[in-house]
Design a protein that fits this description.
The protein is mainly beta and 992 residues long.
């Protein structure tokens, strides 16, 4: 069956005519990617890209930096299946086995079956119109609201649902589930009948839905077989069909996983992942890939399109591939070019692009390249005002093209050994010619006439300016720039060019003569006679060798360089466009802006068509350092004695290199820094001796195409030194019973010291909160507080997480990693669940505590550290010593000052104040009025034994805040008996 036309939305500026010339780049763990098996890709509201992997956690990418989140950062499992963002901007990560991890301003919060989820295997997350998050798991569906699973569904028709991979509602209002056990079913348990058409006993497991504009569902299946098929369901006809997918593009091999992914983009194009990437645009199936020898698209897991129009391909075992099908396309010899080294470009009246290469002449028309002449190199091209094409080559001949049969015009009968270096049309209509032998002349009546005088050096380029003066650039000796008037050659009188030996390009624009040399770019202003000289050191060039010049329709100057890509100059700043990773593709000998505003770059790696960006870049503040390192979502607060405030920011643009962006910033409220700075490439700024006060830091970024971002801001509070040193202890978050008052007095005493503290207590009593109080009351409070759950770290990674490692220390150690001890330098390191630390790591920890230095894994150089260590455990360490699982010498080194948190059942008088505190806290987060506690609620709560301690009370009160009515929490809102939520006879009433 043939695929009929897919209804597509209105065409957008992101047009893709062909996938044949897509450029891309592959990212692996060597670049900082968390893992090589990509499961999901998501772009958040800030523009940052999140990559979920099955073997390394999750990465966040801003175009330059990969920030990895793993076990050490609080992620409960390294297999991350899905990423989503809620209405509050929190990131949610579904893990395979570790439950749901929610990343907010305070770090990760983990939710599991203990919090009501059907299963700890999270397969997909879907934002719902009511703001809830639909959680698809290995045992059904849950609905996550705020910080709890408000509802769940594990059965349909009294039968378990099992694994749910995807959910979609068709245009008829029927909700379908893609399940492992029961195929595609609706909420009434009816099957779609997706086994229709199966051959040879092949079974198909539904995996992913996509819905087109007509409301039809497209279904990707896992299966084993040679056929390339995808499901399509028409809800109006209630008909399911299997569709052949680009069969002619397949090789007929057995595929283990069938269709891995399907999606529809904003154009209505269908993207499927099977043995590669196939795209259906409503008329044809086409194969999508990028010219990357190292990337095997046969391992494609999924595709994703970001807001810039870039395509990201997640590979299973091959990492992440970035593809730019919009802005940059490369044409090479495989597309019909006689040679990949481009020397010159021009456009004729019909809009055809003429390309002169080392191997001959070619014409590009309607995205197709046609070789015209391949018997000689083409070193110069010009289309005159009458539309006539002229070219020059190495045999001392100028060619006048008439159709496909050129007329050769010899420069001399006996001398055919000089190259045609430059061609231009003068004000009288004649074609001017300069050669590698220093000859200069013109063509008249199809004959060459030369001036008797020759230049002493080989010519490279020629230009006639608006005053009729000819400028000629030469090679090899000084001076290299000449002008020709009244039949005479004169050396340039520009003193700035006296030391220049190579002039490669000349261009006139807006009353300025631009001169591209091997020593930088010169700009001669005719009116002021002033010369500006731009170089890498002074001016912002990416390379000093300038090979080509052109102006676009907006008046910007485009500059081709020797290995530094292309620059554009808007009169204020230079923006760099890197065309790829190799030097050859960034060596640009010709630039053309055609009649439609498109830019063409002739490089030594082929011809590149360039479409500027249409989406402004993003901007984030990565770090702010005053007296401590802050997350960007927080405000910066420091004392007036802080000698320097440093702020690090980053523009978000995935096309090109992030280092090509230009930043401007200001500190509002702090003169003279309140004025916007000039745009520079520096993405860091320092402010010294900032007085006490309230300020706002603002930054914006300009991308390579001149598009300006929105403003990113950070509140900066500089307080008087005395005010910053005292903080009140909020005892309400722990309690006010006699035992807690005595304990908090001890906390205040030990906090002022640097003593190691051992915190003991049952699970859920608040050991982490007590440790944070110790840090906040200490002299280290403005420095880092790093928390590590020793029980969540795998044995193979624990020493790397704690102590760091050197590049190459073990397989996968692609770069140096700074461990938790070094990250906490100057501050506090909290080692939770210390009793789960392996014996080998205990020995290393003991050495560090005694010697105040560490050695990274794979390293040999001691690294001094200044860290206050606080540890906590719910285990009996003395019993562990007897069992041989905990070192006795380490115990006595840690037990310098111990604090024992009593369980909640032993201090029931704290329940009223704790319950009131938790109710107010959640109400504030949900932006609701703070509820009061009913008359009988406290007594009801104090009767409970609280096996889960304060944590159990907190979760119960959080639930009560959501379900209570009339602003009062009653006894019915805090049920203390555990209901059997797995009763299959109960069917939830949640509406999809």
């Amino acid at each position: 069956m043939e695929v009929d036309e897919i209804n597509h939305a209105a065409q957008t500026p992101k047009q893709i005519k062909s996938f044949d010339h897509v450029l891309g780049h592959r990212y692996t763990i060597s670049d900082g990617l968390a893992g090589m098996h990509v499961e999901d890709i998501y772009q958040d509201r800030q523009g940052l890209l999140w990559i979920a992997t099955a073997d390394g956690g999750v990465s966040r990418f801003d175009g330059e930096h990969f920030d990895t989140f793993g076990l050490g950062e609080g992620l409960p499992h390294l297999t991350v299946m899905t990423v989503a963002e809620d209405t509050d901007g929190r990131l949610l990560f579904g893990t395979l086995g570790g439950g749901l991890a929610v990343l907010g301003p305070r770090g990760f919060q983990v939710y599991t079956m203990e919090h009501g989820l059907p299963c700890n295997d999270i397969l997909s997350l879907q934002q719902q119109p009511d703001g809830s998050m639909q959680v698809l798991t290995g045992a059904g569906i849950g609905w996550f609201v705020g910080d709890r699973c408000a509802e769940r569904m594990t059965t349909i028709g009294d039968q378990p649902i099992g694994r749910v991979h995807d959910v979609a509602t068709d245009s008829a209002g029927t909700t379908w589930l893609a399940t492992l056990r029961r195929g595609v079913i609706n909420l009434d348990g009816q099957c779609m009948g997706t086994d229709f058409g199966a051959t040879n006993g092949t079974r198909r497991w539904p995996w992913k839905f996509a819905q087109d504009a007509a409301g039809r569902l497209w279904i990707a299946f896992h299966y084993i077989g040679k056929e390339a098929v995808i499901g399509r369901y028409d809800p109006q006809q209630q008909q399911f069909d299997l569709i052949d997918v680009g069969t002619e593009l397949e090789r007929g091999e057995v595929v283990q996983h069938g269709m891995r992914h399907v999606r529809l983009d904003e154009r209505g194009w269908l993207w499927v992942a099977r043995r590669g990437v196939l795209v259906y645009d409503g008329q044809d199936w086409r194969s999508f890939s990028a010219r990357l020898p190292s990337a095997h698209f046969a391992d494609t897991r999924l595709t994703y399109e970001d807001r810039e129009g870039n395509i990201w391909v997640g590979l299973w075992g091959g990492g992440l591939v970035f593809c730019d099908p919009v802005s940059t396309q490369l044409y090479s010899e495989a597309d019909g070019l006689p040679n990949k080294e481009i020397r010159c470009l021009d456009e004729d009246r019909e809009g055809r692009i003429w390309v002169g290469t080392e191997g001959g002449l070619a014409c590009l028309e309607d995205d197709q390249i046609r070789p015209v002449a391949t018997d000689h190199a083409v070193s110069a091209l010009v289309v005159d005002r009458q539309g006539q094409l002229w070219s020059g080559g190495p045999a001392g001949q100028v060619f006048k093209w008439e159709g496909t049969a050129p007329r050769a015009i010899a420069l001399a009968k006996a001398d055919h050994h000089e190259d045609i270096a430059g061609l231009c049309q003068d004000q009288t209509g004649h074609i001017r010619v300069c050669t590698s032998q220093g000859r200069f002349g013109w063509i008249e009546a199809d004959c060459f006439a030369a001036f008797e005088e020759r230049l002493p050096h080989p010519c490279r380029t020629v230009l006639q300016d608006s005053d009729g003066v000819f400028w000629i650039g030469t090679h090899g000796r000084r001076p290299a720039l000449y002008c020709h008037t009244d039949g005479l050659f004169r050396e340039s009188e520009l003193t700035e060019l006296e030391t220049v030996s190579y002039v490669n390009a000349l261009y006139e624009h807006g009353g300025t003569l631009w001169v591209g040399t091997a020593s930088g770019l010169f700009a001669l202003d005719y009116h002021s006679q002033q010369v500006r000289w731009f170089t890498m050191d002074q001016g912002g060039l990416s390379a000093n060798g300038i090979l080509s010049l052109e102006a676009d329709q907006q008046g910007r100057i485009w500059i081709g360089t020797t290995g530094g890509g292309v620059l554009n100059y808007d009169g204020r700043t230079f923006q760099c466009l890197r065309l790829g990773k190799s030097v050859h593709v960034n060596t640009v000998e010709a630039i053309l802006c055609d009649s439609r505003g498109r830019l063409w770059f002739g490089t030594r790696a082929g011809l590149i068509a360039y479409q500027p960006n249409q989406t402004p870049p993003g901007i984030v503040i990565r770090q702010a350092v005053g007296e401590r390192l802050l997350e960007t979502s927080q405000a910066l607060s420091c004392s007036e004695n802080t000698s320097e405030i440093q702020i690090h920011f980053q523009g978000i643009r995935f096309k090109g290199e992030a280092g090509t962006m230009r930043y401007s910033h200001r500190l509002v409220g702090h003169a003279p820094a309140a004025e916007w700075s000039a745009f520079t490439s520096d993405n860091k700024v320092s402010y010294r001796d900032v007085p006490a006060g309230e300020f706002r830091f603002e930054v914006r970024v300009l991308d390579r195409d001149g598009l300006l971002s929105d403003i990113a801001s950070l509140d900066v509070r500089v307080v008087p030194d005395g005010q910053n040193k005292s903080r009140a202890l909020d005892t309400s978050v722990l309690g006010q019973s006699q035992s807690m008052v005595q304990l908090l007095e001890e906390v205040g005493q030990v906090a002022e010291t640097d003593m190691t503290v051992l915190v003991l207590g049952e699970t859920g009593v608040g050991k982490g909160l007590l440790t944070r109080m110790i840090h906040d009351l200490s002299q280290r409070r403005e420095q880092a507080f790093i928390q590590v759950n020793c029980g969540a770290l795998s044995s193979g990674l624990i020493e790397s997480e704690l102590f760091g490692h050197e590049k190459g220390a073990f397989t996968g150690a692609a770069a140096r990693k700074i461990g938790c001890f070094e990250r906490a330098h100057g501050g506090t390191l909290f080692l939770d669940e210390i009793g789960n630390l392996p014996l080998d790591t205990q020995r290393t920890l003991l050495h560090i505590l005694e010697e105040d230095h560490l050695i990274r894994v794979g390293g040999g150089v001691p690294v001094p550290i200044d860290v206050r260590v606080v540890v906590a455990t719910n285990r009996d360490l003395k019993k562990a010593i007897q069992e041989g699982t905990f070192r006795e010498d380490l115990f006595y080194r840690l037990d310098v000052f111990s604090l024992v948190l009593p369980p909640l059942r032993d201090r029931r008088e704290d329940i009223p104040i704790l319950a009131t505190h938790f109710a107010a806290q959640l109400a504030e987060e949900l932006r609701r009025p703070v509820p009061s506690l009913g008359d009988e609620v406290i007594a009801h709560l104090q009767e409970h034994n609280w096996p889960g301690n304060v944590r159990e009370l907190k979760h119960l009160i959080q639930r009560a805040v959501v379900v209570c009515q009339g602003g009062v929490i009653q006894v019915k809102d805090v049920p203390l008996s555990v209901e059997d939520e797995d009763d299959e006879g109960q069917k939830p009433h949640h509406i999809f």
